[in-house]
Amino acid sequence: MMIGVSDSTFFSALWQGAETIIILLAVVIASALLIWLERRLLGLWQDRYGPNRVGPFGLLQVVADMIKIFFKEDWIPPFADKAVFIIAPAVIMLTTLLTFAVVPFTETIDVVNLNIGLLFVLAMSSLGVYAVILGGWSSDNKYAMLGGLRTAAQMISYEVFMGLALLGVVMLAGSFNLHTIVESQAGLWNVLTQFPSFVIFLIAGCAEIHRAPFDLPEAEQELTAGFHTEYSGMKFGMFFVGEYAGIVLISSLITVLFFGGWLGPVLPGIVWFLIKTMFFIIFFVLLRAATFRPRYDQLMSFGWKVLLPIALANIALTAAAVVATS
Amino acid sequence: MQVVFFIAALTAIAATVRVITCANAVHALLYLILSLIAIAVDFYVLGAPFSATLEVIVYAGAIMVLFVFVVMMLSINDQTVKTERQWLKPSIWIGPGLMSIVLLVVLAFAIATGNSSAELSSTPLSAHAIGANLFGPYVLVVELTAFILLAGLVVAAHLGRPQPDSARHDAERGKIDVQNR
Fold first, then answer.
1. Does A133 contact B127 at a Cβ distance shorter than 8 Å?
2. ipTM score of complex
3. Fewest CB within a 10 Å sphere: which of A114, A174, A221, B17?
4. CB B53 to CB A123 under 8 A?
């Protein structure tokens, strides 16, 4: 222990560290369990069983999958760009997990209370593009390459609408701090005042983590497996878990930005946060079960011709409303 | 915090050197992204968190993605790497090296004689302050940037416009002529 550092600061630093590790582990484990949850729910909605053999309700399926994936040969194709090939899956896990650093789970449970929290979220999501682009490029495979190119265009475009949609929320709260944004919703949730923003964020978030119906980068029928065609073993596992961590992330961001985060009557804050986040996670699974995949040009023109004008109009109206009421 | 600043600064310099010396274009771009992120860390330490995140969002996240996007299309193989290495032979370093030394001398002179009281500030610059400045004293610059962006947009729309029917017929006829020949 350093001289001049009192016991209380030492223990608070220790607690902070422990909290960080707990959140990290919780997110990774939740993402892994989500794979099981998704398969069971898809089974339910598509009138079949899904994985129900391993353990109670098939819960241990994740463990079985993990063991399998760890023992698989981690093959790097000889024609691949080795360094980039290894970096790519690490990028998606890094950027997704780093974003959780600024998500306020409750008033007190968070990793860091950053005054530019929302911008940090956008910065990390814009760096996340590299995972897919580099994965696609370094594989030196035409399917992977096409998947990578599609992702680059899709993610850069939808990032724009995501950022613009969030500006309305920022204007109402008057801050980029996610804590302040949650507290500003004490009277009225943002989903009621910023409904267009919410819809755009939901769609753009779906496109950012390239989930169905926006999973064109890995459309099986056209591109075999898209950008991760050449990946195997744990590197594939990282892309896979990274995608589910992305679902948890977007769901918790929707909760924080539009549904009042930890705010709610009677129950403790963390329970409210988990209930709301769980609702959106299940919604994303339902979206996958219920929707079809659009054509690529439809995806791009929907973004630029529909979402962009709505986002801009929403900003103008919100700004006018903020000025009028202040 | 000064330690963080210098670590990030050294990373930025090392990465930038690799941007120039790297023979593989995509690897060079990755080093450039690393350099930009290191500079963002420096911005943050200097008390400008807003500029730091914008550096990551705009430069590392958006502009560099477009660079990578284009470079990805070029097929980079051992042959191109070899050609690139040949271009980097010692004699070509003379001109840029001399110019850089001139710049370094000027910079060193400016630092030595100028007001060197700049230090790490403890009060972070808020987004509000930056916005008030941009749309206050510097509003003309913002408007000029908007002009440039609009011009770029018009050009892009012009290049990407759908071809009129007659032009398409001409193009197809041309193709048939070439085939018949």
1. no
2. 0.81
3. A221
4. yes
